[in-house]
Amino acid sequence: MLAGTADAERERAALTLLCELLPDIRAAGTGRPAEYQRLLTAIEAAARARTPVADLLDELYRFDAAGAYRQLPHEMPFGPGRADEEIAHCPDGACSRTERPRPAGLSPRCRVTGERMQTQATA
Q1: Quick check: 44 and 14 in contact, CB under 8 A?
Q2: For the chain, what is the total number of helices (H) and then of strands (E)?
Q3: Which of 16, 56, 65, 69 is deepest in the core (most CB within 10 A)?
Q4: What residues contact residue 103 under an 8 Å CB cut-off, 6+ apart?
């Protein structure tokens, strides 16, 4: 595999992870030092600009010796239903995040850019 391809795949995976976990990462950042908050702000800005975020995310996860990632809140296994016949994708294809929208609801938003995700029929 070419180094450029591996780097691109690493960045795509990092952006996907960021998009999936951003609300939890923001919540876990409450009360953390200003340096942590500055790093999170830089990560979000880089993600919106579609510049590399993988190394910045690694730095964020190493920031707390106890591992901020392990302290993220978990979603409850119940709540509003999800549509079975459609799936939403990253608005500009920059990451691999997918999400099932709520039945008869608006498509979800990208957690990085705030844009509506593109929906596609699965049936």
Answers
A1: no
A2: 3, 3
A3: 56
A4: 81, 82, 83
